[in-house]
Amino acid sequence: MCWNLATDAPVTTVAEALGIVTGIRVSLDGGGLSAGLKTGCAIESRQFQSRHAIENFLSLASAQVWQMLWLRHQARTKTPGPAAAILSDGQREALRALCATLPTQADAKQTLIALAKLGGYFGRKSDRAARLANALEGISVTDHLRGGLRGRAESVPIDLA
Fold first, then answer.
1. Closest Cα partner for 117 from 41, 104, 100, 57?
2. Domain residue ranges in the chain
3. Strands, E, within the chain: which ranges?
4. 80-132, pLDDT tens digit by residue?
5. How far apart are CA 30 and CA 20, in angstroms?
């Protein structure tokens, strides 16, 4: 894909041009944040009763959306980096518990597809690339499982004898 950029900003050096391109890329990623919150986290369908509740939700959800945006960005590179650099050990453990075919040292692309499949993506050859909303749904599933795994590890056995 090739883009032509037209701007009215004064550009006299390559460094200035790169600065403008970086700014535009950041603003486009901001659109990804908005879309992730809207579709992936369903912020519009949640009916919060106070500003405090909305701010609490946004503080948690925006971190999760940025994590998935970073995973998607890494997955789209020519040589996707390891998912271990993006997801926590607990998230990767829960994902491997749900996706037995996922390699232990999965890269970002393999991980993104596994998460998206948990979120309803089929992953057939004829399908388009995994959507951010599917990956967010998948990470939500792994976070629920992770909470259960943590609870199981912290539970105290009860002697019924």
1. 100
2. 14-153
3. none
4. 989 999 898 988 988 998 988 999 899 999 999 999 998 888 888 888 888 88
5. 15
pLDDT at 160: 45
d(CA 4, CA 158): 67
Cα–Cα distance, 114 to 99 (Å, whole number): 7
User: Is the CB of residue 117 less than 8 Å from the CB of residue 137?
Assistant: no
Taking the model in full, what pTM does it have? 0.67
The per-residue b/e assignment along 111-127, b for 16 or more CB within 10 angstroms, e otherwise, is: bbbbbbbbbebeeeeee
pLDDT at 31: 64
Which residue matches tokens 């040292």? 105
Structure-token pair, residue 14 = 């390559």
Axis-axis angle for helices 14-35, 132-154 (nearest 10): 70
DSSP lists the bridge partners of residue 53 as none
**Separation between Cα atoms, residue 56 and residue 43, nearest integer Å:** 12
